[in-house]
Write the structure tokens for this entry.
Amino acid sequence: MITALDHIAIAVPDFEKAIKRFMEDFGLEFEGTEDVEAAKTSTAFFPLPPTSIELIHPLRGEGAVAGYLEKRGGGLHHLCFRSDDIEADIERLKAKGYQFLADAPSPGAHNSKVIFIHPKSCDGVLIELNQPADEH
Ligand code: CO
């Protein structure tokens, strides 16, 4: 079941500059950065309860986020629904015809399990499903 809007992610070409903007200009609490090898992405989280802002930047210049930045510069990249049972949600949505970017969840930030729904299944919006570590 989907239980919350976990975060909204913005792809940024200049990671340090964007972190500074959200900390200093917007005055948000900065939780820190985390590299997610499985997604070739560096992340920075700014909790803004009941959700968070996630900045994403390519790790070592590779991966899907690098391709996104090349094509579009920065931008709103995805939103993320928190799930209390990601396997059940995947199965339910697959049965309704939703396509996913992977066959199974992979490790995400904060030891979560994550999977992305293909944007063409959702009017062009990339949606992440995320099951936090304490719920699996
Ligand atoms: Co995300």
About this structure: Residues 7, 9, 54, 78, 80, 128 surround cobalt (II) ion (CB under 6 Å).
